[in-house]
């Protein structure tokens, strides 16, 4: 065989051997790859399973807070005065958002969160993981942002406080801030009780940050406790309407009304003017936030005279029929001349109250030991807080002196030189109506009337109430305080307004404090009209009619039986109260 033929025969054999080797190499390569994959799979699924599962969880699992519902504030009949409604809050993770800036354009022109606003907020807090974007949104408002799918934007459920009665109960109930923390009124006084404890839950989020599954409830939210106030919303509305009407009618700058249950000490109504809407506090005047009935002080004027007479009765110095000479209608005490509206001559103690004689009460005060009258006023609660737990309550001013000058004692007897709140004055009259017993005042509903403590004797208290009935009678200064079907006992007061520079010459406060029904008092109320127009400023003109309407409505709402023959008209149109 030739050499060329032998070469041709060897070539195919060598080629075949090389092809076999290549297949082995390829097979070996794939076997190695498969082995690597198997080893890696074992490593991932067995060796590093816990670590990788944890890493996956922290990227998809989140622990989110569960908002706690704040307790409801209700009136004595269960009507809601403050409730929390669920709202949506939008928040962002700036670190995540910064990695997806190209998607911020989706927010252009959005009415809730505009692109420019979003960019400013995120860039200003680029190193943080949580910032608020918008709070207290309705679900549809929040969805207009969430539906855009902007990375780093999330939502959570919170609560917003709503006040169904609005301005009518605002000074009592108060309000919370955006975090539902009490800022004023009952919301602040009972904040700890009303505030719940937030919970926590574990959830799974998708790539867009949406919650797709609740995994585990770690800790349930604990809602706050409800608070039931002593207020009767029906009476509160009535008092609010009548006070606002009087303030407008007489051109006053403000006013206050307090209505108490004599037996239980409960505050049934408390309103002030000017007011504010707690549901919309934008542009509000901060002076409107004050609950003037418990914070603002005024000199009570002639409404203090019953307590001067009570001190004299308790000392055994006089009886309601004891004669006092008030002639010639004025009394010189030191450098001051004390005057009556006219010369009443010789009158009895009852008429001293009926006609509101400054001379008569001054003579009573000057005939006592100098510490008797201040001590009596202190026993009635003057110069000390009432204890209703209301934020910012003033204790009033009752001077403490080792020695009183005669002019100071005389002025104190008719309500000058002492300052009170409307609530303090109402408490003092409630003591008279409760047969001389003082019960603690309460903004919270009381289930059982407390026993209280004795301030003056039952006979003295009854005598004072009987004398105060004459003030509302035909010859008294408060004929406009009458209530059809009910006996009324009360006292007018008209005082010069005290300013930073002293007594204002032509500015006044008209006051009426009273009880009804007089035969067995259930209601004590005080009406203060602040700085009314000069054409009508006497307490008997501006405050007494407000008392009549409010207390008359309260007695009927409480189903208190009438104690006076029917057909009696409350107040003559020409009646004038002078003090």
TrEMBL record:
Residues 67-214 form the Penicillin-binding protein dimerisation domain. Pathway: Cell wall biogenesis; peptidoglycan biosynthesis. InterPro entries: Beta-lactam/transpept, Beta-lactam/transpept-like, FtsI_transpept, PBP_dimer, PBP_dimer_sf, PCN-bd_Tpept. Its EC number is 3.4.16.4. It is found in: Membrane. It holds the Pfam family Transpeptidase. Keywords: Carboxypeptidase, Cell cycle, Cell division, Cell inner membrane, Cell membrane, Cell shape, Cell wall biogenesis/degradation, Hydrolase, Membrane, Peptidoglycan synthesis, Protease, Septation, Transmembrane, Transmembrane helix. Residues 255-551 form the Penicillin-binding protein transpeptidase domain. The active site is at 302 (acyl-ester intermediate). It catalyses: Preferential cleavage: (Ac)2-L-Lys-D-Ala-|-D-Ala. Also transpeptidation of peptidyl-alanyl moieties that are N-acyl substituents of D-alanine. It comes from the Bacteria. Belongs to the transpeptidase family. FtsI subfamily. PANTHER family: PEPTIDOGLYCAN D,D-TRANSPEPTIDASE, PEPTIDOGLYCAN D,D-TRANSPEPTIDASE FTSI. HAMAP family: FtsI_transpept. Catalyzes cross-linking of the peptidoglycan cell wall at the division septum. This is Peptidoglycan D,D-transpeptidase FtsI. It comes from Alloalcanivorax balearicus MACL04. The gene is ftsI.
């Amino acid at each position: 065989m030739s050499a060329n033929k032998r070469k041709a025969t060897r070539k195919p054999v060598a080629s075949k051997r090389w092809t076999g080797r290549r297949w082995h190499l390829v097979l070996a390569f794939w076997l190695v790859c498969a082995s690597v994959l198997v080893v890696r799979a074992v490593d991932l699924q067995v060796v590093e399973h816990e670590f990788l599962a944890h890493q996956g969880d922290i990227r998809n699992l989140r622990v989110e807070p569960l908002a706690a519902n704040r307790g409801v504030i209700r009136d004595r009949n269960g009507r809601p005065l403050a409730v929390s409604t669920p709202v949506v809050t939008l928040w962002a993770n700036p670190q995540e958002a910064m990695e997806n800036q190209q998607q911020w354009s989706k927010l252009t022109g959005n009415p809730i969160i505009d692109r420019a606003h979003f960019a400013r907020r995120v860039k200003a807090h680029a190193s943080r993981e949580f910032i608020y974007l918008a709070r207290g949104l309705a679900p549809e408002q929040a969805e207009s942002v969430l539906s855009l799918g902007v990375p780093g934007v999330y939502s959570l459920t919170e609560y917003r406080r709503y006040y169904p009665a609005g301005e009518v109960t605002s000074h009592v109930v108060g309000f919370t801030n955006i975090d539902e923390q009490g800022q004023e009124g009952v919301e602040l006084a009972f904040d700890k009780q009303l505030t719940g404890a937030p919970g926590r839950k574990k959830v799974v989020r998708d790539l867009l940050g949406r919650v797709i599954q609740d995994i585990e409830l770690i800790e349930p939210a604990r809602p706050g406790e409800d608070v039931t106030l002593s207020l009767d919303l029906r009476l509160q509305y009535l008092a609010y309407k009548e006070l606002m009407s009087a303030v407008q009618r007489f051109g006053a700058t403000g006013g206050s009304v307090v209505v108490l249950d004599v037996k239980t000490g409960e505050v049934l109504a408390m309103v002030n003017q000017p007011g504010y809407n707690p549901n919309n506090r934008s542009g509000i005047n901060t002076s409107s936030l004050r609950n003037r009935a418990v914070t603002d002080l005024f000199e009570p004027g002639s409404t203090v005279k019953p307590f001067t007479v009570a001190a004299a009765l308790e000392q055994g110095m006089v009886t309601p029929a004891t004669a006092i000479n008030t002639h010639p209608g004025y009394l010189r005490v030191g450098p001051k001349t004390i005057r009556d509206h006219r010369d009443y001559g010789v009158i009895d103690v009852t008429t001293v109250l009926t006609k509101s004689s400054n001379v008569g009460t001054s003579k009573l005060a000057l005939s006592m030991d100098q510490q008797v009258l201040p001590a009596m006023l202190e026993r009635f609660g003057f110069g000390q807080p009432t204890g209703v737990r209301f934020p910012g309550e003033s204790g009033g001013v009752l001077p403490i002196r080792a020695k009183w000058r005669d002019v100071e004692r005389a002025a104190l007897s008719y309500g000058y030189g002492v300052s009170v709140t409307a609530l303090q004055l109402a408490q003092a009259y409630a003591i008279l109506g409760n047969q001389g017993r003082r019960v603690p005042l309460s903004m919270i509903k009381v289930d059982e009337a407390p026993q209280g403590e004795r301030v003056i004797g039952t006979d003295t208290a009854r005598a004072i109430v009987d004398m105060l009935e004459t003030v509302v009678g035909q010859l008294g200064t408060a004929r406009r305080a009458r209530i059809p079907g009910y006996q009324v006992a009360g006292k007018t007061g008209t005082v010069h307004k005290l300013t930073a520079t002293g007594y204002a010459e032509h500015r006044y406060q008209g006051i009426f404090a009273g009880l009804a029904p007089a035969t067995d008092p259930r209601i004590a109320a005080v009406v203060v009209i602040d700085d009314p127009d000069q054409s009508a400023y006497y307490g008997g003109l501006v405050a007494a009619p407000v008392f009549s309407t409010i207390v008359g409505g309260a007695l009927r709402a409480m189903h208190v039986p009438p104690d006076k023959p029917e057909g009696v008209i409350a107040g003559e149109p020409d009646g004038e109260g002078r003090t």
